TrEMBL record:
Entry keyword annotation includes Transferase: no
GO CC aspect terms: cytoplasm
Species lineage: Archaea, Methanobacteriati, Methanobacteriota, Stenosarchaea group, Methanomicrobia
Limits of the OBG-type G domain: 2-260
Recorded family membership: Belongs to the RelA/SpoT family.
UniProt keyword annotation of Calcium present: no
CDD domains (alphabetical): TGS_MJ1332_like, Ygr210
Record keywords: Nucleotide-binding
Protein name as it appears in the record: OBG-type G domain-containing protein
Short name of one Pfam family: TGS
Gene Ontology MF terms in the entry: ATP hydrolysis activity; GTP binding
Gene3D superfamilies assigned to the protein according to its UniProt record, in alphabetical order: 1.10.8.470, 3.10.20.30, P-loop containing nucleotide triphosphate hydrolases (3.40.50.300)
Amino acid sequence: MITLALAGKPNCGKSTLYRAATMAPAEIANYPFTTIDANRGVAYVRVPCPCTSLAHRCGVCADGIRYIAVHLIDVAGLVPEAHTGKGLGNQFLDHLRQADAIIQVIDASGSTDIEGNPDNPGSHDPLEEIPMLKTEMAMWLFGIIEKHWPKMQRQAQSRSFSIYAGLADILAGLSIQEEHVMEAEREAGIELRLTASGDLIEFSKILMRKAKPMIIAGNKADLASPELLTKVKDSGAILTSGAAELALRTAAASHMIIYHPGDASFSIPDKGKLSDAQKAGLMKMKAYMDAHGGTGVQEIINRAVFELLDMIVLYPVEDETHLTDGQGRVLPDAFLMKKGSTPHDLAYQVHTDIGKGFLYAIDAKTKMRIKESAVLKDGDIIKIVSTAK
Ligand SMILES: Nc1nc2c(ncn2[C@@H]2O[C@H](COP(=O)(O)OP(=O)(O)OP(=O)(O)O)[C@@H](O)[C@H]2O)c(=O)[nH]1
Ligand SMILES: [Mg+2]
């Protein structure tokens, strides 16, 4: 399963976003380093379910909305010089190893300093946080490379040793591949074999960018001034209000409102049941959502998966006429797979044995047989014919 991680300075709202997105418990408080041990949970991307264009609904989706699971990790806050041991040090950076992509959370309201200490809104520049995280992550990677470098350079004296494969091997746990190493070398304009470890910082930065693509959440947007909102938005960040999303999901869970995560707004089925304070709180959130088209929380998860990681959604079925599995369930599964995936890749994703016994595939929409090497499209419904059952 895909893993996304929330990272950023302390007190910017990572755990609030995590709780909102997973509805799993996590401690939240207005001081730095509330989170010490990483939280791990399941969040969802949201897509329109293909059953909306069928005669009857699939039974898996919620009102035509399909939610597909991804892992979400919430880590401790990161301060400048964390790689040298400041704050909680860099051991928690290890939690980012498993991440396929990183959601950097910044405090768009500018109400905390770079170390996460609370302050008045607008008293700090949120954009300063962006290079800080990048630098700390790159320096952490650099530290790992530096440790192995003398041995690498010794080995590189032998003609048969590939420094690319060697480095990729050491960094495999960070999902860094040989191509990443080669591309980063080219972009940094260096020749790795001849480079002293001290000159690998820029290379580490580039390598980190390739291995862990990043998207930025300008969080606490509900608290931010119009000037800061514009500034943060212009930087390419996506505005979010983790606090609003958490409140909405909690209210929806207790049937106070009707809200599907990712909706642009919500409705109140019975206003009579609400206290004045509840009504006022909900109206405030409604005004925010009307101005921004929602809370931004679902949007950032979707964009991390579909834009940063280039995924598509595929629906394997056993019966291409009724779009069901063996038990008659309509469109039971939805898989997130890399753009460019083939029917054969999908077969392996369903089950290794199905992949091994792959014969051919049928596009359920056109009922045509498709080639093993055909590139699948987002939303494709595919029947796989395999020797394995
Ligand atoms: N107004 C507003 N407040 C928020 C939002 N998100 C978080 N907060 C508040 O910001 C404070 C910090 O939130 P946390 O989620 O604990 O922040 P964190 O980044 O996990 O902090 P550490 O674990 O200490 O690194 C809390 O008081 C939250 O209620 C938001 O979107 N809007
Ligand atoms: Mg936290």
